[in-house]
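Hi R.,

Here's the chain you asked about this morning:
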Amino acid sequence: MRTIAPGIEVSPLALGTNVFGWTADTATSHSILDAYLDGGGNFLDTADSYSFWGEGNSGGESEAIIGKWLAGRSDRDDLVLATKVSHHPDLQGMAPHTIRAAVDASLTRLGVDTIDIYYAHFDDPGTPLADSIAAMSSLVDEGKVRSIGISNYSAERIEEWLRISEREGFHTPVALEPQYSLMERGIEADILPLASKHRLAVMPYYSLAHGFLTGKYAGTATIEGPRAADASKYLTPQGLRVLDVLRSVASTHNVQPASIALAWLAAQPGVVAPIASARTTGQVPPLLEAMHIRLTDAELQDLDDASQSLVRA
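And here is the predicted structure, written out as tokens:
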């Protein structure tokens, strides 16, 4: 287990649930949750907006599916639940009244009294940051939220959030959720140093680069599926070099490339738990295997070298 904050310990891999209610129906989602928990995971990442983009959806589907799975379980206290505010179609932005309405809706859908990590999902330049921070902090005081996280904010805005929190005596964030993978390494220039400086736990999303790092794509293949367009952009000479190294290291460990990609990410400074999702139970084992892989210095260096030019300021 890895520590995010006092009393919040998580497995070194978080289960992303943005596919619940989209490409995974309720029964499949519950089977995925069971498989993840049985494999030693305890950290669920969702958002109030998941998955409004699915046909017939309006937002909140993922939380509702998780809530049905949690109902009647006796191990709630062993699980760490993270959700987010600001991107639900009906509750957009970080205005205080939006935050209050959104957290109550999330608590209801999840069927819990407290959210372990509550993220500001996207920045809202139209709302004074101090007002958003005060509202988020008050949720901790009221017991609705145990800790605060920030996702998709720039390094400058995160620094501003921290300065305001310290100056005003608000509860400070404990976690960051940025995009980060072997194919997206831009945060190494600013977010990761900031996280290290302020001891913020980093939980990267899109850890498998929209499925590209599973290794199932080849240079001449046509990528199909709900994330085809996102994965296709990585079919470049650089991306194929990364896949070649992933496959080589995976062969050494007798695992799938996805496991190696997640293990590399988990080994990066400040990263506590990469977030990865599965739309079938068959996709869960490679995710779980990543928790037990320790890459050698040489393997880490080979992967780093293959993707080095993707480190951008």
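One quick note: The mean pLDDT is 95.

Cheers,
M.
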